[in-house]
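Researcher: Sequence of Alcohol dehydrogenase catalytic domain-containing protein follows. Predict its structure.
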Amino acid sequence: MRAAVLREYRADLSLETVPDPVCEADGVVLKVLSCGICRSDWHGWVGEHARVKPGAIPGHEYCGEVVEAGPLAKFRVGERVIAPFILACGDCPECRSGQSTTCGNQRVPGFGEPGAYAEYISVPRSHNLTLLPESLSPALAAGLGCRVTTAYHALTGRAALQAGEWLAIHGTGGVGLSALLIARALGARIIAVDVVPERLDHARSLGAELALDARDSDVAAAIREATKGGAHVSLEALGIPQTLNASIECLRPLGRHIQIGMPTGHLAKVEVNMLAVYMKQLSLFASRGMPAWRYPSLLSLIETGKVDVRPIVAREVALSAASAELRAFDGPMPPGVAVITDFAG
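Model: Prediction complete. C-alpha cells:
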C-alpha cells in the first residue's frame, strides 16, 4: 500500500510502498477514506513526542471502510466506521468505569502504532469503533476521531459547561473551532482568542460575541472586564505557557480551566500561576479524546443539525500535500483544518 512515512524529523514525509496491514483477531482493516492533519501529528513530526520515531506512519484522526474483519470483530466488510484515536482495552478498571480515555493499556495509531497517512490501516479492538452515519461525509467525519470528540467531552463530560455561561477559547485551530461550534449549540456565550485576524473574523461569523487578538492587550484582563468578573469556563487549545496562564487568569472565582493543548517536549513542564488557582479556588481539568460510549450523544447533535461541523474542514488535500500542511503549523494558519481524502495523489 501507499503511505507517508516519517524518515527524518522536520523533513518531508517519504511517500513509499509499504506492506499491507495485518488484521488482528478482534480488529478490522480499513480502507482509509479520510484522515485529518492535526497539531498532534506536528508534535511527532518535529520530534517532540516520545512515541514517534523515524519509520513511523502518522495519522490518528480517521475514518474508513472495513475491507477485512477478524473473527472477534464487531463489524462487517463494507461498513464505514469512525475510529477514536484512543483504542482502549475494554477490560481494565478505567475502561470498566467508563473512562476509557485513561486506559493504561491503550493503543494509539500514529503514536507507537502505524497511523492513517496511508491507504489502509489495521485497527485492533474494534469495540471502540462507531458506524459512520450516512448523512456525514468522510471528510467531516475525520474530525470525530480527535478534534470534535475531544472538545465535546471537554465541555460536557469534564467542565460541564452550562447555557448562559461565558466560555473563553484560547486558540481557534481545529479543536478550538470545534469547541466554539459545540458551545454555541449548548447555549454558552463565547470569547475567542487568537493571533490571526482571519481566524478571529471567522470566529465572530460563527457566533463568538467577542474575539480578542492576544498580541494587542492583556487578554485575561480584557475577558474579566467584558464578562464582569471573568469566564466561567476557559479552554486552552495550544499547549504553551502564555495561553495556559491567560486561560487560568481570565477565570472568575470557582471557574473551570480545561487543558486540551498538548504540553509535550520542552513544554511538558512550565510555570503556572498557581496563586490565581489558589485565590480563586479554580478547578483544573484536562481532556484527551472521548470514551466510545459517548459517540451517540454527539452524533445525535450533528445529525439533528444542532452542531454543524462543516466550518471545521477548510481543505481536502492529497497524501502528497501532508508535509506542507505539517510545516504550516510552524506559523500563523488560516481558519479551518486540512483533511487527506486523496491517497493516490
